[in-house]
Amino acid sequence: MRLRPSTSHWGAFSAGLDENGHLQVSAHPEDPAPSPLLGNLPSALTDPTRIAAPAIRRGWLERGPGPDPKRGHEDFVEVGWDEALDLLSAELLRVRSEHGNEAIYGGSYGWASAGRFHHAQSQLHRFLNAFGGFTSSRNTYSYGTSAVVLPHVVGTATDVLRNGSSWPTIVANTELLVAFGGVPEKNVFVTPGGVTRHHTPGFLAQLADRDVEVALISPLRADLPARLDVRWYPIRPATDTALMLALAHTLAVEGLHDRRFLDRYCTGYDEFERYLLGLDDGIVKDAAWASALTDIPAAEIVDLARRMAARRTFITVTWSLQRIEHGEQPVWAAIALAAMLGQIGLPGGGFGHGYGSMGDTGDTGPDFRVPYLSQGINPVKQYIPVARIADMLLRPGTRYQYDGAERTYPDIRLVYWAGGNPFHHHQDLNRLRSAFAQPDTVVVHEPFWTATARHADIVLPTTTALEREDFGCGRRDSHLIAMHRVAEPRAQARDDHTIFAGLAARLGIEETFTEGRTAREWLEHLYGSWRQHLAGKGFSVPSFPEFWEMGEYRLPNTETDRTLWADFRADPVAHRLPTPSGRIEIVSERVASFGYDDCPGHPAWLEPVEWLGGERASRFPLVLIANQPHTRLHGQLDGGAVSQAAKVAGREAVHLHPEDAGPRGIKEGDVVRIFNDRGACLAGAVLTTDLRPGVVQLPTGAWFDPAGTICVHGNPNVLTADLPSSQLSQGCTGQHVLVEMERFAGEPPGIVVNRPPAISRKRDM
Ligand SMILES: Nc1nc2c(c(=O)[nH]1)N[C@H]1C(S)=C(S)[C@@H](COP(=O)(O)OP(=O)(O)OC[C@H]3O[C@@H](n4cnc5c(=O)[nH]c(N)nc54)[C@H](O)[C@@H]3O)O[C@H]1N2
Ligand SMILES: Nc1nc2c(c(=O)[nH]1)N[C@H]1C(S)=C(S)[C@@H](COP(=O)(O)OP(=O)(O)OC[C@H]3O[C@@H](n4cnc5c(=O)[nH]c(N)nc54)[C@H](O)[C@@H]3O)O[C@H]1N2
Ligand SMILES: [Mo]
């Protein structure tokens, strides 16, 4: 058996087919901590849900394009590639001539796979740009709220994410790590584009060796490894801002704040202090106040504030904290708190965002831009904040606010998705189903019959990364990996690139799209220009044939201890921040000028709807945390061995506290029904005392398997609210939702999403 090199968002590996045709996978030999998710790969080629041939929804084929509530409820008809591409190119031309390019939504959010040439979204955007453009999307489901608020406070999200203390610096210097959301080890195996050497698990182990004090602030103990001796503050979800304000209040009233730092590097501290002291609203944000909200004893809050002031303290906030209503506030409040401690720019001090959210945060690997495919220029200027997809489809022409501007939703007639799964990532999936009934046509490229593919009109089967040639490399990755073809394409699957080239030929834009190159020639071309670029910087990089033969290229090290924050600390005038004042804006005049009641001009405690203190909690008394799964990446390879092994009674496992299970008569292993007024899902119960009572945890990613308004498989997004974080950022708020839960009596309905939908092989019209 010959093992060939490849990589994935969760790690580099080599793979080959054994004599029985089974895929064998072996982690990269230099990976100190290979991801358990590699175990999902072996069944990827032959999973029963692989899409075999182009398929068209029967109603669309018979009645033509148009809004249709039957989308997602009808069978499919397999057609040949030529017929599928002819129909699709004609429909693209119709939509363009009748409604203009703006009527095509090509935002197509999603992670696709690791290879950088066959990156599905880049291919789609390049194709649609050649066709005259499309309505696009801004920001992410990952940190869409931070991406909008951070430029007002400190600079771009990229500045913040790439410039915190590195893990080695933290391990060497930090005395107290205050981790809001913890540093969940399950998440750090993942970096978009690939990762060859997983360093963060090793750094987490070093925290223990070096006796760094760790404060874990999270409803879940699992957010830091069990082997770490942490002080666990099992906070009530969505109340971190209150805790941060009380910590800040303690610093202020005890004179533990760094006045010199605040004066020299920040704006607005005095106004913020008035707010902490309650001088205008009459509410003193002290530890007693926060204790009632957070359920952390006041004495512990005061004690933590004093310890933070007395030690080199690093405050981290996971991205999950901003994936809720008013998600701006905990991020902004953490920065204000770190500014009061005055340690921003000192090694191992200050704040960070996304440590434990992504593998590259805090990593010190090489910092290179890897080869990528140019997407061209989009002549259409219309876009939406990415999480407003359902609003846009349901309410064309409606005005909304975004980052200080009024915008209008376009009227979308054609939705085109390649490399993402909105029926995984979006909230309130029953609402999304109504939204997907609105356009004339929905097109999806997918290797698998995901729920999104099942809600399309034209479904085009694509290869997986294992069935084509590419190269992959994540941010801070140590290697560029040659991704060799390990197996022939499944059934009739084609590469996204080949599909778009076929459409481009029909639309007269082939030359613009392909520039006359085959896929292999593109790889050589992109690699070649990248190699030249590096040569200009004095690096000697092997030729393409050498790289391909070796299977990888170890990138030169660019490690440096200089960060934007250290420079800023050294000279805040020469290294002014890209904010209006050039300083850290504890108060932002600009945000204040927008006049948003859901995002005022400084960090503030604002009550969300989906939390245990509100009115809704009397009907739905449990808060469900829908975090990232430890058994897969999002919904990818849910049929894989690692993902399947963790299912309970064939469904996604929901973790709950015995104190919540007992009164509901729920026992370990029971099928439970989790519900609220938006929908319901079934899941398998797992009892644990490692989360706070009143909190249940059901990760994202079980493939949506609807029977009416209930998902029989355990997808939490049937329950979550399609509510924006605020008018400022319009970010997604999928992390928390209020629910009730009961034991499911009787025989639970079977899972059907693990088989293809109904497909007719012949056209019998
Ligand atoms: N409730 C709740 N919801 C959430 C979150 C949460 O915390 N709570 N988290 C959010 C976050 S942070 C994110 S990033 C999103 C993730 O949401 P997505 O990125 O949409 O999820 P994936 O499952 O990674 O979807 C990628 C899809 O691309 C397909 N694919 C892989 N390779 C190829 C290819 O070469 N070509 C094509 N055409 N397709 C390919 C895969 O089969 C898969 O179906 O989910 C968000 N949703
Ligand atoms: N294995 C795996 N790793 C992944 C992914 C995956 O799908 N699988 N997805 C990747 C992607 S796209 C992204 S964007 C990142 C996401 O990174 P994050 O958004 O940081 O990850 P989550 O796991 O959703 O949340 C982290 C933890 O925050 C805690 N938390 C939730 N609510 C609260 C709260 O109100 N207060 C406090 N203090 N803590 C809270 C939860 O206990 C949760 O485990 O992960 C990446 N890593
Ligand atoms: Mo994400």
Key structural traits:
765 residues, alpha/beta, Rossmann fold, Dimethylsulfoxide Reductase, domain 2, 4 domains, eight-stranded mixed β-sheet, seven-stranded mixed β-sheet, 25 helices, 32 strands, binds ligand MGD, binds molybdenum atom, molybdenum, Mopterin_OxRdtase_prok_CS, Molybdopterin-dependent oxidoreductase, periplasm
Overview of this structure, please?
Residues 50-505 form the Molybdopterin oxidoreductase domain. Residues 6-44 form the Molybdopterin oxidoreductase N-terminal domain. Its cofactor is Mo-bis(molybdopterin guanine dinucleotide). Residues 23-44 are annotated as: Disordered. Residues 622-733 form the Molybdopterin dinucleotide-binding domain. Strands 24, 25, 26, 27, 28, 29, 30 and 31 form an eight-stranded mixed beta sheet that branches. The longest helix is centred in the first third of the chain and has 19 residues, at 81-99. Helix 2 packs across helix 18 and helix 11 (287-294) packs across helix 12. Helix content is 29%, strand content 17%. It folds into four domains: 4-40, no CATH class; 55-141 and 369-554, Rossmann fold, CATH 3.40.50; 144-357 and 568-594, 3-Layer(aba) Sandwich (Dimethylsulfoxide Reductase, domain 2); 615-743, Barwin-like endoglucanases. The protein has 25 helices and 32 strands. It has 765 residues and is α/β, with parallel strands linked by helices. Bound molecules: ligand MGD (2 copies) and molybdenum atom (MO).
